[in-house]
Amino acid sequence: MIPTEELKRYEIFAEMDLTELKLLSAMAAERRAREGEELIRAGSPARNLYVLQKGGLMVAFPDGRAITLHKPGRVVGWSALVSPTHYTASVTCLTDSTLIAFPGSELLRLVQRNVVFGTKIMRKISEVLSRRLPFLQEKDKKLLRQRS
Prior knowledge:
The protein is α+β, with helices and mostly antiparallel strands. Helix content is 36%, strand content 24%. It has one domain (29-147): Jelly Rolls. It has helices at 4-8, 18-27, 104-113, 115-132, 138-147; strands spanning 29-33, 38-40, 48-54, 57-60, 66-69, 75-76, 90-93, 97-103. The strands form 2 sheets. A 4-stranded antiparallel beta sheet has the order 1-8-3-6.
């Protein structure tokens, strides 16, 4: 469990009310990862959404392009909320890192049951996607357009 005050610090949860933050807090867990550890592998089932608390991550796309994330609050693993729930990129820790992990299946159930909450979280996920869209492969872009 991660305190609601901690969750509120991050942009993805900024619009959440206390009730929503409590639901998120109950399912959230701290995940520590070591430098060089592969957190996510492209193509594998998307089981978790992660929010970076501290450290550095490299997001590597299958075509060889990559971006780095160092700012607390950055999100990886958004595929856990989008069918067919397979990761589209690999994520490796550049430094020892601390993340907040959310089980994708639990988070997805919450999104599906609560329209207001779902709208808030999916709006934030779409912001993440829009920032990373230039790095997606053409086949991934087509898949996202089909889902819209």
